[in-house]
Amino acid sequence: MSSTPNSASSQAERVPAGDEPVLSVRHLRVEFPTRHATLVALDDISFDIAPGEVLGVVGESGAGKSMTGNAVIQLLEPPGHIAGGEVRLSGRRIDDLAEDDFVPLRGRHIGMIFQDPLTSLNPLFSIGDQLIETIRAHLPMNDSQARERALELLREVGIPAPETRLAAYPHQFSGGMRQRVVIALALAAEPELIIADEPTTALDVSVQAQILALLKRLCAERGAAVMLVTHDMGVIAETADRVAVMYAGRLIEIGPVGEVIRHPRHPYTEGLMASIPGITKRLERLYQIEGAMPRLAAIPAGCAFNPRCPHAKARCRSERPELMAAGQSLAACWLHDPVDPLPREPVGQGTDDATQEAR
Amino acid sequence: MSEAITTPERPAAGEHDVLLEVRDLARHFDVSKPWLNRVLERSERLTLRAVDGVGFTIRRGETVALVGESGCGKSTVARLIVGLYGLTRGQLIFDGEDISDLASRSGVQAAAVRKRFQMIFQDPYASLNPLWRVGTIIGEPLRVFRAELSATERHQRVGELLEQVGMSAADANRYPHEFSGGQRQRISIARALANEPEFMVCDEPTSALDVSVQAQILNLMRDLQKQYGLTYLFISHDMAVVKHMADRIAVMYLGRIAEIAPSDALFANPHHPYSRMLLAAVPSLEGVGRERTMIEGEVPNPVHPPSGCAFHPRCPHADARCSREVPVLIARSDGSEVACHAVEEGRIE
Amino acid sequence: MSQHAERGDVVVPARPGRLRTFLDSDIVYSWKQQPVVIVATLVTLVMFAGALFAPWITPQNPFDPRQIDLIDAFTPPLTTSDFTGTFYLLGSDSQGRDVFSAILYGSRISLLVGFAAVLFALVLGTLLGLSAGFRGGWRDALIMRVADVQLTFPSILMALLIFGVIRGFLPRSMHAEVAIIVLIVAIGLSDWVQYARAVRGATMVEKSKEYVQAARVIGLPDRKILVQHILPNVMRPVLVIGTIGLALAIIAEATLSFLGVGMPATQPSLGTLIRVGQDYMFSGEWWILLFPGVALLMLALSVNLLGDWLRDVLNPKLR
Fold first, then answer.
1. What mean pLDDT do residues C242-261 have?
2. Which of A108, A149, A320, A332 has the largest CB neighbor count within 10 A?
3. In which family does this protein belong, per the annotation (chain C) (predicted)?
4. A131 pLDDT exceeds 50?
5. What DSSP string runs through B230-279?
6. What single string gives the DSSP state of each residue in B85-106?
């Protein structure tokens, strides 16, 4: 696989010189064997995250965004497994590690934050015990040092009066406070990489803003790389430095956040951005991408988006596009073929009604 | 759809008659522990005032939205209006008729009212009976309200409804699990349309859907509104969705309305500090890399709400009066009504 | 819209037939993957068939005194009697009864009691569970407290107690004829709790689901909501418990009969046969005990295995 020099190598060049990426994923492929067929859940995913960088991974449900995170930390649900490619953490290959060798990485080198704080916290232990235990498991500290560190962490994540809260149990905290504790727990061992999977989805908007700002600040201070998996473009816009857009198990666009949001290059990203209602403008109709994302068992040949794409041509139906340079981003679309770019079809909102009428 | 042209988009100005009037609506839930535990642990009875004195009106053909964070009581209001819960206090007037006792009505008396409205739910996976075929699900309101239809007529009507929501008549023979979340929500909408309601309560109809699917569903709901002159009560926590859908918006906080205003006015000039906070907290695509205005604190436990104005512990403008006295909605010149002492006293704009 | 006219004749896309769909389902796939389950199914089917068709399969009716020859008593298995020339596959007992026939007739009674007791417990438990889960309040508290109390006793003790109480109310002369009914009621009453608990839990979950609220919004009465929506959706766990419960009920019946409080020797179930057989265990006539014992073991084990498999297939989360 490494013999194919393509987009991935150009992707690697985007990382500032001299800075080795914390996480480097190359041609990652995840398969789910079922009794009818082998489903390819992730297909040729390549990206890097630099120290201190927040990479947002967006996509709709089933696009494979959470699975990318789970594949990196080897928490794929069986029978899913990594079937190709490689994952490197600070230059060290980790995708081929056995579970026993991988366990010490989680927590120490890779911190994890999930949507539901209660899945990360043990309801039977006080948060002080959990923090101290985590710290002592990963760092050479004695009990009182670990306790000091735990207090410091809780203070840093904005838990008021941490001395009195160490003995409290998870259920005694509110949702936002719990997620703060989870962040403290994830940062306890100063990991190089944080994987945050929908960290604010379960929270109210007002709390969401607090948690995102906190996460971003703490990771920047520590130089930790963050992989922020979410379906919420707003969260990405506010928090991420770069965005990776996923569709049907493939990475279809990756680039700086402002660029992807203001000048989306892949027709899917374009449609996605246009379909989000805003609070500043009010349209009579929202732009809608017709149809739905294909199931893994029925991903069309060529570009996976071709049946829904207004610009699709014969080539899109037969030949799969790799990531290609498009503006400051990379997009997997023949519109951006450096040799022979496809022409864009004029697309207006009016066509929506026409297609509806035809149905 | 050709019918859409003949039906006016909105009733003319003079016909702005009130379809639903909600007066001082309240619903308290007993959340005490079981009797035996209370006796043994000597704990008090606990009351959750999920909705505590909510009043607003909905005019025919318009969309009124209730927004707020979790636990503000917006879904409870929706369920009170459609008679899923009984009222603790207050009155519901639907098209001139007092329907406050709807939850306890039965038979013809209930059907006469119930056939005039419908509800769309949040979770497309839980809102359809998994053991029923789609045709049976959509036909259910028909079997209840239009028993005179023959099986063939009903079947035909179900086919029409499915096509109306952008699906195919043949889908009637399939089961819910064969469809995606967006398609299930379309089925839900088809069911809600079956008894040709005038009024539709939509409880977070797109919050479980992906954005591209959300756009499809919101467009469909607006098309249907135009076509049938439907009146919507739209419940959501998403300010952008509410902005897109609603003519008027009521912002709720801990069981009460903080501010109710025409949509444009609210977004242009929110008065209540909570409305401002909510708007500022919306993550926006326009402001890439922008830090959201930080709001301290979280929604308190509604079982033990703060005294006076429930928002006062989080409010930057709170004073002694706010912690003592519950503010009431006061109409302002721009058409909005605000329940805030600071706004009333002119301390803030 | 132009489609209006054609709507009457909806073209249904070709769908595979029901049998095809079933054979392709995950349940059948999982069944085929597990040899133990296949064997358990075969054993269960053979034993059910044997019990059902006993009168046509067995060489004699062991309850008909005219067909029994005392002179053939204690014939060992696979032996032809020297006196009557009758072949005894599994030997004969002290009365000269063919053990093979007695086992098939015995499983008839065991299965009848088992099925009827499960049905009784299932119906009672489901009704009480539905009522508790749907209505809540004092009904729920009452039903569930009774259930809790009953659960603190081993169910066989409960069955013994109920059996004794019912018998106490009946004249002695009726004991033999109504033994089977008393047994069914006793086992059924000792077993309703788990159905009630499962149904109550499932009912509370279903009741809060939005499809039930949708039915309420259109004013569907509670009775119809229960029957049309909730009951069918809570039946899955009930059927799984029922299958495992069948094995337990068969064993409970055998236990009671073994203890001498179940079926009388004139209408022996597998348990009765085992009780009778144990008298001869050490006197050399081992087959009188062994074969009914093996039959009971096979029946209970295979039904139980089937139930476990069904539980795993229908609800993996229960594991």
1. 89
2. A332
3. Belongs to the binding-protein-dependent transport system permease family.
4. yes
5. -EEEEEES-HHHHHHH-SEEEEEETTEEEEEEEHHHHHH---SHHHHHHH
6. S--SEEEEEETTEE-TTGGG--
Percentages of chain B per state (helix, strand, coil), in multiples of 5: 35, 20, 45
Q: Is B173 among the domain residues?
A: no
Q: Listing from the earlier edge strand, what are the strands of the sheet with A110-113?
A: A110-113, A193-197, A225-229, A54-58, A242-247, A250-256, A329-331, A324-326
Interface test with C, best of B125, B129, B145 (most C CBs within 10 A): B129
C113-265 topology per CATH: MetI-like fold (1.10.3720)
Q: Round to whole Å and give the CA distance between A115 and B334.
A: 41
Is there a domain that residue B176 lies in? no
Whether B4 has its CB under 8 Å from any CB of chain A: the answer is no
Kind plus residue range of the DSSP H or E element containing A215: helix A205-222
Which chain C residue has the Cα nearest residue B104? C219
**Do residues A15 and A48 touch, judged by C-beta distance below 8 A?**
yes
Which C residues 105-144 touch B at CB under 8 Å?
A: 141
CA of A71: how far to CAs of A87, A109, A113, C304, in Å?
9, 15, 15, 39
Residues 6+ apart with CB under 8 A from B29: B47, B48, B50
**Tens digit of pLDDT for each residue in B204-218?**
999 889 988 999 999
| ipTM higher than threshold 0.95 | no
CATH number for the domain harbouring residue B65: 3.40.50.300
B170/A contact by beta carbon, under 8 A: no
- Burial class (CB within 10 angstroms; exposed 0-12, middle 13-18, buried 19+) of A98: exposed
Q: Is B153 a domain residue?
A: no
Q: How many domains does chain B have?
A: 1
Per-residue pLDDT tens digits for C151-204:
888 878 888 888 888 888 888 777 777 788 888 988 998 889 999 999 999 999
For residues B129-156, give the mean pLDDT: 94
Q: Could you tell me the pTM of the whole model? A: 0.84
CB contact under 8 A, B140 and C13: no
The shortest C-alpha distance from B346 to chain A (Å) reads: 26
Q: Verify whether the Cβ–Cβ distance B279 to A279 is below 8 Å.
A: yes
Question: In terms of residue numbers, what domain contains B249?
Answer: 3-9+19-116+197-284+293-344
**pLDDT at residue C29 tops 90:** no
Min Cα–Cα distance to chain C from B174, Å = 10
